[in-house]
Write a structure and sequence with these properties.
Elements (H helix, E strand, L loop, with lengths): L14 E3 L9 E6 L8 H15 L8 E4 L3 H12 L4 E5 L5 H9 L3 E4 L7 H16 L13 H4 L2 H11 L4 E5 L4 H13 L4 E7 L34 E5 L1 H15 L5 H15 L6 E6 L25 E2 L10 E4 L7 E5 L6 H11 L3 E6 L8 H4 L2 E4 L5 H12 L4 E5 L6 H11 L6 H8 L1 H10 L7 E4 L5 H8 L3 E5 L9 E3 L2 H12 L14 E5 L5 E9 L2 E12 L7 E6 L5 H18 L4 E10 L2 E8 L7 H9 L3 H10 L12 E7 L5 E7 L1 H5 L4 E6 L6 E2 L10 E7 L2 H14 L1 E5 L2
Parallel strand pairs: 2-9, 3-4, 4-5, 6-7, 6-9, 7-8, 10-11, 12-13, 12-15, 13-14
Antiparallel strand pairs: 1-2, 8-11, 16-19, 17-18, 17-19, 20-21, 20-23, 21-22, 22-25, 23-24, 25-29, 26-28, 26-30, 27-29
Helix pairs in contact: 1-2, 6-7, 8-9, 10-20, 12-13, 13-14, 14-15
Length: 744
Amino acid sequence: MRHESIVEAIGHTPLVRLRVAAPEGVEVYAKLELANNFAMKDRVARQVVTEARRSGALKPGAPIVESSSGTMALGLALVGTHLGHPVHIVTDPRIDPITLAKLRTLGCEVHVVSAMGEQGWQSARLDLLAELMTGLPGAFWPQQYSNPQNPAAYRGLAEELVADLGTVDVVVGSVGSGGSLCGTSRALLERFPDLRVVGVDAVGSVLFGQPDVPTRRQSGLGNSLYPDNIDYRLIDEVHWLSDDEAFAATRALAREQKIFAGNTSGSVYRVLTHLAANAAPGTRLVGIMPDRGDRYVDTVYAADAAEPVPAAEPVPVRYGELVHSWSYAEISRRERPLLLFVESNTTGTGMLALTTAVRLGLEPVLFVVDPARYQGLAETGCRVVVCDTDDPQALRKAAEEAAGGREVAGVTTTSEYYLVQAAALAEGLGVAANPASALAACRDKSATRRTLLAHGVRQPRFAEVRDPAEVEAAVAAVGLPCVVKPVDESGSHEVLWCGDAATATEQARRLLAVTRNVRGQASAGTVLVEEFLTGPEFSAEMFCADGEAVCVGITQRTVSELPYFVETGHLFPAVLPAGTAAAMADTARRSLEAVGLNRGPAHVELRLTAEGPAVIEINARLAGGMIPELIRPATGIDLLDQQIRAAAGLPLNLTPERSRSAGIRFLVAAEPGRLAAVEGVERAGAVAGVERVTVTAAVGRPVRPVREAYDRLGHVIAVGDGPEQVGAALDAALAELAVVVEGR
């Protein structure tokens, strides 16, 4: 076949039949993508670069910058430099000498990160890539993990399979960015709806419900991040292999089939032969073999004479169960268990929870009053049912109709305002969940106070007020100064410190005049007047599982100046003596037992008084204020992931993978007016230890000194080995930032 250029020669790879032990009539093929000039990612590089040139995203002669540990880098080196673009590759110390030599010889500039980031080597590479992009005007970042041109590149591979075979019954592929298996199978499923799609991952990769192990030795598959290009709805089954098992399979591929390949191909081969041995006569299986073995001569092919004998068969596991060696889990592509969401956060974790459910092998269904409220909902692909979510009968009827007899794994929500509704729906459907009464006792802060009082849990003195005329007596019972707040709002909204009875009365009058909250629900018509406790603020991040409330950690909270209580910063874990931290965890645990919470996350706010910890609030949900975003880099625990697991009855993993510190500071306005700019973002982001600088407020919006969480304008997150390192990074970043406010 004649081609006009090396770029046009990409693809058209051989398809070879393998000699494997299988029932008569079973055909097993290997698609040798390793026969491309460099490897399979040559297809992606050509697709991404040519499309970017066509659309104008990549100008003639402009640089290309990408993060890659191997084959994508080589593909970009091939296509990019051939078409006249400087190519910068960001990689890590795991890069092999052969690939490094190829890249440099092809004319690439290679940048090697020196240490892991908060989520392994991948996040460290992305941090360095961001720095390079700021210094290379007009640079194009292919973003292989989220660029839809990545999976689109494999439509050609699928067409080649159809041309060579006619039909395919099973396709097996490794999963890293998600492009090859998802792109190929999506195109094949259009022709063959009964196709079985099998993914292959590495033990220690997060892609399919496993904790991250950054020290895993396999390359080319697995990940420490969740790429957008993995469509979990396409995959029927996933296998995990340990490093030793993958390496042994790769050597077996060379020995048995004379294919000298990389560990991605070896892993596919091990799974492919297992499936073939158990296939029905007439089944046609294809395994995608991504890369050659020359990069692995000093690793995969450096066999140890005393190497362990790999397992002959995989162990079947429930999806989400922790694995350490060759295991597999089936995921029903057509009839996945349903996870019902009753409304959602409108920002933050709301839409992410839906995609997390899909990643965990579930089909999310979102019940809402108004879909337009949710930005980004369409992109999730989630099924949406419109109904009155505050009407228990209407909600249950809608849920039963939506389920249509299918398995409902659980019911949950990421919205404070719908905790009780979700729990009541779960009870009505007979699904395991927290009792609705427990959620109601948390949602209504006056009920929380009464319950804790009955169980002897330390808390402020309090009085309930339903009429402004009752405030004077309430203040007399509670004492001054006091705190006046609604019983049914979220976070710090409308919470006020009052130094005298007149201020308390006016605050109560204002709150009692409100008849509907921000979600349009009827207000409770009750206000709490509470004793103002002195002492630093903390929160215990709890998770209830198997009848036990586990303390994931204690967060140290910084709040705004009185009379408001807005969180302006957090440090996780808090700097506390071990005994004090244990006392806080115990107080939080007792409070959860008192209200009856026994499943999923809880965020218990506390003050450390002279008499010990006292409970300020119990939130039967994940913490707000970006606290879960601190816990993940500090411990490796993804609390949103765990919430979805708990709701669906999937296995949990609350064991910390690491012990670091993380902190956040929120950006606020010093004076009222309109936001003109937030200056110094790039400089702040370049401070060592800073993981993220995010501006959430749009230029031109009205701003004021903080009175509630909605007044915050953005945040800075830093991660380090200890609190001093984190604090120094946050201080340095904030010194670079300036919130510019213009007159009204």
